[in-house]
Amino acid sequence: MSIEPQAETSQDTTLVAADSGAHWLARYQKSLLNVFGAPQRVLVRGQGALVWDADGKEYLDLLGGIAVNALGHAHPFVTSVIASQMATLGHVSNFFTSPSQIALAEKLLSVVKAPEGSAAFFANSGAEANEAAFKLARSYGNTQGKPTILALEGAFHGRTMGALALTAKKAYRAPFEPMPAGVEHLPFGDLGALEAALATGTVAALVLEPIQGEVGVRPLPPGYLKAARQLTRQAGALLIVDEVQTGIGRTGDWLAYPGVYGPDFMPAELPDALTFAKGLGSGFPIGALVTIGPAATSLLSAGQHGTTFGGNPVATAAALATLHTIDTTGLLAAVTERGEALRAGLRAVEGVTEVRGAGLLIGFDLDAPCAPELVQAALDAGFIINAPAPGTIRLAPPLILTEAQARQFLDALPGLIHTAKTPIQHRDSETA
Ligand SMILES: *Cc1c(COP(=O)(O)O)cnc(C)c1O
Questions:
Q1: Cα–Cα distance measured from residue 271 to residue 370, given in angstroms and rounded to the nearest whole number
Q2: Separation of 37 CA from ligand 1 center, angstroms?
């Protein structure tokens, strides 16, 4: 007699009973480490660019899980690919490989236009991708007698110790010193400072973001990246570009690098290494380091780095499904168009003083330090946005955001800014 698997497959998979938002938050406070502060809402469901909270309220998600939900929530193709991969083969360890891991490496190298001899390493997050990049830089520096790794002021590269050493913000670093040694932060966009640092002959690598996301979407100044590529090459230092937030369609291109480099970008001017994560798996955790060309690729050899989960069949299948969908639905062009329209619309809103970004990675400044109040007012009105600084808002919506959804936010924004600037004690009397 055989045991029928039917009983199991037809089982109800609801493991958590429903509760109200307020109850969930009280339970959160008693059970989760308080490193994030109080969560804004308890979210239970998503569809496209919309999410719903535990009390049934609907939101237009203009942050996309911080530039992660590239194809929105519950994308049918990504969902089915993940489910079918898990039902076929979910994890194998890196003693083995799988077709989806190899196919993703090939696809990633092809969209990056990486030359022959390039290679991918898969991790589980942005910080982990940057840890691999840090080890690449350190290993190169140790063979060359170059102990210094340069990063930029305003940089965000993650919260693990190596990535944190590259991250500039003092409040993130100070409690955890000493940092891994050798990292120096240069003034943002200052080519003279870069030249002077490279002239010491001690620099193994320069690590930077083409557009700094966490400080409020700040692109490198025109010409900086091109000059940095030439100067690092002349000095025998690696150029490592963190595309964790900007890569994989976010800016309307597979990479932000060419657009920030300038109109005369050629594939030969690619950096020595690139890192990816956020949008790569459409919400399934995955990170990647791509080494460009045989020299960079030979810097880490067998046994020098590793990960248990990294590159597993499910994560790589999720990323393959993401890249395939971006490719086959004309999404890059749509992101460029939608982003331009959104930025033009934002520039016309009273109270908005500056609008920055590329594609659907957008930062805008307000004429008052009311960004946290604006986030709150937007949330109450059913819009999820983010305030990386007191006077700055960041948007990183799903790449599938429709024109009507973008318009909905632009139409609401003047009223939301007004509410954000109104002291709370006056708000009730206004609506009464
Ligand atoms: C988010 C981010 C990271 C860190 O990624 P995690 O997945 O949070 O570890 C690194 N670099 C940049 C540019 C980022 O935006």
A1: 38
A2: 19
Helix (H) or strand (E) holding 426: helix 424-431
Whole-model pTM: value is 0.96
**CA-nearest residue, atom 11 of ligand 1:** 157
Name the residue of 244, 246, 274, 275 whose CB sits within 8 Å of the most ligand 1 atoms, as the mutation to test its pocket. Answer: 244
Ligand 1 pocket at CB < 6 A: 125-127, 130, 156-158, 209, 213-214, 242, 244-245, 277-278
As separate numbers, helices (DSSP H) first and strands (DSSP E) second, the chain gives 17, 17
Contact indicator for 122, 314 with CB cutoff of 8 Å:
no
Render pLDDT for 191-242 as a digit per residue (tens, 0 to 9).
999 999 999 999 999 999 999 999 999 999 999 999 999 999 999 999 999 9
What CATH class does 24-72+330-431 carry?
alpha beta
Return the pLDDT at 431: 46
The yes-or-no verdict on residue 8 having pLDDT over 70 is no
Domain layout of the chain by residue ranges? 24-72+330-431, 89-328
Dihedral angle of Cα 415, 417, 419, 421, to the nearest 10 degrees? -150
**Fold designation for 89-328:** Aspartate Aminotransferase; domain 2 (3.40.640)
pLDDT in tens, 135-175: 999 999 999 999 999 999 999 999 999 999 999 999 999 99
